[in-house]
Amino acid sequence: MRPPAPSALGLLLLLLLPPPPPPAEAAKKATPCKRCRELVRKFNQGMVDTAKKNFGGGNTAWEEKSLSKYEFSEVRLLEITESLCGSSDFECHSLLEEHEEHLEAWWLQLKKEYPDLFEWFCVKTLKVCCSPGTYGPDCLACQGGSERPCSGNGHCSGDGSRQGDGSCQCHLGYQGAACTDCVDGYFSSLRNETHSVCAACDESCKTCTGPTSRDCGQCAVGWLQEDGACVDVDECAAETPPCSDQQYCENVNGSFMCEECDSTCVGCTGKGPGHCKECIPGYTKESGQCADIDECAGAEKVCTRQDENCYNTPGSYVCVCPEGFEDTEDACVRTQTPGGQVTEEDPTQPPPHEDL
Known about the structure:
EGF-like domain; alpha+beta; about 350 residues; 7 helices; repeat; 5 domains; 22 strands
């Protein structure tokens, strides 16, 4: 069999090679520190999984002696490293292959002296990570110190990595370079050389010195200083109503809401047909509520054609000829059957629903 031509061989190789990752996937590629941290996490888990492997009953003295040998053995190291990387995790396999000698040296010679594998391997040996509370190429201490970065009230940019600038992204309620100051709406409930704690003001305060409405330095919008405390402003009681004619105003703490009137109202003071100022045409006030007027039940007949029926509807009425009657301009006339007989349907029976 002849070998394939060079051009055909090149095409075959191109087909066998995996496609390059899309730009978005490449952007999500893990940093060297994250890869090292994950490898150490799996290694530590491997140590837990193999801690008492193959031992569990029998001669205790023999087991303790054998377990002591196994604990630091190359056999156990091999078992741990074989389970570190998934079959398709190329980056993990590459990192492990490149630094396998370092891991072996730590396992056989340095483990007792440097029990923290992450600190020895990722921080001091590979120099791809930093210790907690430090950041950047030189692992400088974060704002507020490495023991309590950002005073415990924020996140240090680049914390634990060789990246970032060490600045603090403060938690809600805190501000300042080291997140020791309180923002408006919070007050300092504890502050000493090592700790700063900010607590929320009462909802009525924009600024405050304590937790109640009497501790406000300045009232929040929608609140007013009165008798030494910030009280809610009732916007609904204003001389000029804040809502439209077909809405009613509902006061809430620090603000108000405009709600739609009931559909039977012409203007209203609250929710439902019982709070209408006036009623829309076809409705009248009954027991304080807007209720439908039954025009068909009135003393004056509203459907005036002969044999015509009246049907009440919400807010109005309809005049309809009954089934078996023909609608003309002046009256409802009985229709004749094909045999010439006049139908005898009762004109008082209601028409089909679709005629209404």
